[in-house]
Amino acid sequence: MAVFSLEVLTPERTVVSTEVEYALLPGTDGQFGVLANHQPLMAALGLGIVEFGPLRGKRRKIALGGGFVEMHGNKMVIIARTAELAEEIDVLRAREAKRRAEERLRSQRSDVDTARAQIALQKALLRLKVANDE
Amino acid sequence: MARTSREIKRRIASISSTQQITRAMEMVAAAKLRKVQDRVASTRPYYERLAGSLAVVLQAVEGSGVELPEIAQRRTGERHCLVVLSSDRGLAGGYNTNVIRRAEAFLQEHPHTELVIVGRKARDYFRRRNRTALAEYVGLGDEPQFRQGMDIGQVILDFYLHGMFDQVAILYTQFINTLTQRVRLRPVLPIQSEIASGSSGPEPVYIFEPSATAVLEELIPLYVNAAIYQSLIEAKASEMAARMNAMAQATDNAEELIEELNKTFHRMRQAQITKEIAEIVGGADALQA
Fold first, then answer.
1. What is the pTM of this model?
2. Chain B residues inside the 8 Å CB shell of A10
3. CA-CA distance, B142 to B178, in Å (whole number)?
4. What are the angstrom distances between the C-alpha of B103 and each of B79, B81, B100, B106?
5. pLDDT, tens digit, for every residue of A124-133?
6. Residue A14 in contact with residue A41, Cβ under 8 Å?
7. Are strands B207-209 and A41-53 parallel, antiparallel or unpaired?
8. Mode of pairing for the β-strands spanning A83-85 and A14-20
9. Residue A42 and residue B209: Cβ atoms within 8 Å?
10. Contact A43/B209, CB-based, under 8 Å?
11. B209 or B20: which leads in pLDDT
12. B-chain residues near A24 (CB < 8 A)
């Protein structure tokens, strides 16, 4: 299969720079896959999992905190708000974050920002899912 | 300058202890510079990519005839917002002076300007002149975090969307290398499609998901935050480099001064001895006579 280059950038660093055969991306309207020689593409990405690798063999996963993707001439660049490789995720910290978010949602106090707690919970769940799913 | 040798000795001691401090500060700044310098290199691609993609989307949306989302619309007003990046601590040579001087020039040129100030030095300067700022950020630390860029960016975007001002620019010090840093003005809003018009040939036709407008709306906040964050990093690297150079200079000056004082000290000691010998010889002569 034809390959294309994939780069995942966060404000802090380059998370991944590699050659892949496919990538599965969390679009704002649902997951979609991209193969090599795709038409030039720009898409907004939501919170979700980026999966990539050779079609047969080891796939890798990234927990993505939103961003966008540009693909052009077999070069795919993901500009992420946050991105963590599955193997880099600190499971204990994610569990802790999940617990705290749930607590805040349960507490029903007026000073709790429900929307923010929801997002924190979703992020923690996503990271746990990505980390455990290897 | 002529004083007793004891005074000179005391001065030498005082200068060498100052020199110890400047040398330590130089080394600390060098260590911090090394850390943040790597991040200048690792944050530039993100920002540049983002600027490039933004230009492509903006052109596509403009070309399609769809109305631009509010945040991307051109504004022609003359109300500005200037984000001034200075440091919290001094002893960095001309670092803060240069930024503040440029800010003053900007204010002269654009009287309707709201200030967003980062760093104690600029804050104190403008406070002394009774110039109020829209927002002030001090104590951001030696390693700027993306969160901080986001916080500042969010505030600016909110004000911008509420129509507080028409143009936003960041005044920061670009890190070129250890010896050279330059104060630069980085225009951020409104978005300019010329940011990266260096591409040759016709632009490929992109597919936009879910739509070009949606992508643009997603990109602009990212871009603003990244622009601020990247500037914070550049400014921090420049600050450290400026401090390192200033302190290296100070250490050298102290060295020179110590050498000079040492010479004077020995000359005085020599003169004293000569004088004493002359007196002894004189005394002996007097006895013999």
1. 0.81
2. 46, 146
3. 17
4. 15, 11, 5, 5
5. 888 888 777 5
6. no
7. parallel
8. unpaired
9. yes
10. yes
11. B20
12. none
Phi, psi of B106 (to 5 degrees): -60, -45
- Give all domains of chain B, ordered by start, each with its CATH number: 21-247 (3.40.1380.10)
Amino acid at the residue B45: P
Of B42, B212, B225, the CB nearest to A12: B42
Q: Give percent of chain B above pLDDT 70.
A: 95
Which residues in A have their CB inside 8 Å of a CB on B?
9-14, 27-29, 32, 39-44, 66-68, 70, 72-73, 77, 79, 81
Which of A75, A43, A77, A50 lies closest to A65, judged by CA? A50
For each of the domains in chain A, give its residue range(s) and CATH number, in order of start. Answer: 4-86 (2.60.15.10), 90-132 (1.20.5.440)
How many beta carbons lie within 10 A of that of residue A105, not counting itself?
A: 14
Work out the minimum CA distance from A68 to partner chain B, whole angstroms.
7
B44 shares contact with chain A (CB less than 8 Å): no
Say if residue A114 is exposed, middle or buried (CB neighbours under 10 Å; 0-12, 13-18, 19+).
exposed
Render pLDDT for A37-78 as a digit per residue (tens, 0 to 9): 888 888 888 888 888 888 888 888 888 888 889 888 888 989
pLDDT of residue B151: 87
Residue where the block lists tokens 């630390």: B141
